[in-house]
């Protein structure tokens, strides 16, 4: 991605996470532009990251080699139709981060046969600890595939899926996943406070424990189940806690949550993809 100019269309949560992660990786701010109709969003991005911002998408994308479409799925069809006539001359690589929207629908809205990569990143990209699955359409050549991968790899782990339908499951797992862990941290912090700890102590212990467990699981050759067993002394405290979680249907609840997210991703594809 050495000389590439990147343009983010939509400067909200996901764009900011990607921009922040790219800058932390050493990507120069003067090669990133962002556009957003919302003045508050533009100001926030310009102030925080020092990138050039635009109210007008056409102005922002001039000269860009890569366009990252980071608007809500509901706004993607209208945006793609607006962009289509402006893409012919430069033929930039397009990267969509939108949940649900199928590459074939987006490609149709963009005028057809565009080099288009659909991906599902997550917000820990901000701290270069993201996880992104990518899917390329037939119009994407090897150089463009490498370019898309290098952009997302700069902010965390990347992997390609060859079967696009898997993107709905990826969205349910890693796209939405940070929110599940944040909820767990919130719940543990609250429970710690309720058990009598000062709020700051409960917060720090919950955060460091989540971080330590994730890091240990990542770095260990043992599966998480084995690591769990090593915390669980027979007749001890963890055993009681885990029994309460299992009795409460924790695993089934997680499965239900992810099935709901996958179903919503499919539903978005059906509802919004029908837009001619
Ligand atoms: N937030 C997350 O954790 C993740 C979000 N995504 C995807 O990223 C996309 C954006 O989500 P968020 O950043 O969370 O939403 P957001 O609402 O924070 O940001 C979207 C931005 O797009 C702007 N926008 C709307 N219409 C526009 C247009 N025509 N041209 C330019 N900008 C326009 C809005 O003003 C807003 O600032 C969605 O499609 C979502 O599915 C994907 C992975 C994770
Ligand atoms: O909640 C959403 O729809 C987006 C996609 C994955 C994470 N946030």
UniProtKB/TrEMBL annotation:
Main localization of the protein described in the UniProt heading: cytoplasm
All residue ranges annotated as the Pyrroline-5-carboxylate reductase catalytic N-terminal domain in the record: 6-100
Residue intervals of the Pyrroline-5-carboxylate reductase dimerisation domain: 164-268
A GO biological process held by the record: L-proline biosynthetic process
Reaction catalyzed: L-proline + NADP(+) = (S)-1-pyrroline-5-carboxylate + NADPH + 2 H(+); L-proline + NAD(+) = (S)-1-pyrroline-5-carboxylate + NADH + 2 H(+)
GO cellular component: cytoplasm
Record family assignment: Belongs to the pyrroline-5-carboxylate reductase family.
Name of the molecule in the record: Pyrroline-5-carboxylate reductase
Organism annotation: Thiohalobacter thiocyanaticus
Classification lineage: Bacteria, Pseudomonadati, Pseudomonadota, Gammaproteobacteria, Thiohalobacterales
């Amino acid at each position: 991605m050495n000389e590439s100019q990147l343009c983010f269309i939509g400067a909200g949560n996901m764009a900011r996470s990607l921009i922040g992660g790219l800058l932390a990786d050493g990507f120069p701010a003067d090669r990133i532009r962002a556009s957003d109709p919302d003045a508050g969003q533009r100001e926030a991005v310009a102030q925080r990251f020092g990138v050039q911002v635009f109210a007008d998408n056409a102005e922002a994308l001039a000269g860009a080699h890569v366009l990252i479409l980071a608007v809500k799925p509901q706004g993607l069809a209208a945006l793609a139709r607006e962009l289509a006539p402006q893409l012919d001359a430069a033929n930039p690589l397009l990267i969509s981060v939108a949940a649900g929207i199928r590459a074939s629908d987006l490609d149709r809205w963009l005028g057809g046969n565009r080099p288009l990569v659909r991906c599902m990143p997550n917000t820990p990209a901000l701290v270069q600890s993201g996880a992104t699955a990518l899917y390329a359409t037939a119009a994407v050549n090897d150089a463009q595939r490498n370019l898309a991968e290098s952009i997302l790899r700069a902010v965390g782990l990347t992997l390609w899926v060859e079967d696009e339908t898997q993107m709905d499951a990826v969205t349910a797992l890693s796209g939405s996943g940070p929110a599940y862990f944040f909820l767990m941290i919130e719940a543990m912090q609250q429970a710690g406070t309720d058990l009598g700890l000062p709020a700051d102590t409960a917060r720090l212990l919950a955060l460091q424990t989540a971080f330590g467990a994730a890091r240990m699981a990542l770095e260990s050759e043992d599966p998480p189940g084995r690591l769990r067993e090593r915390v669980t002394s027979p007749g001890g405290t963890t055993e009681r806690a885990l029994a309460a979680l299992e009795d409460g249907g924790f695993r089934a609840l997680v499965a239900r949550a992810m099935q709901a997210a996958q179903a919503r991703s499919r539903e978005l594809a059906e509802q919004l993809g029908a837009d001619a």
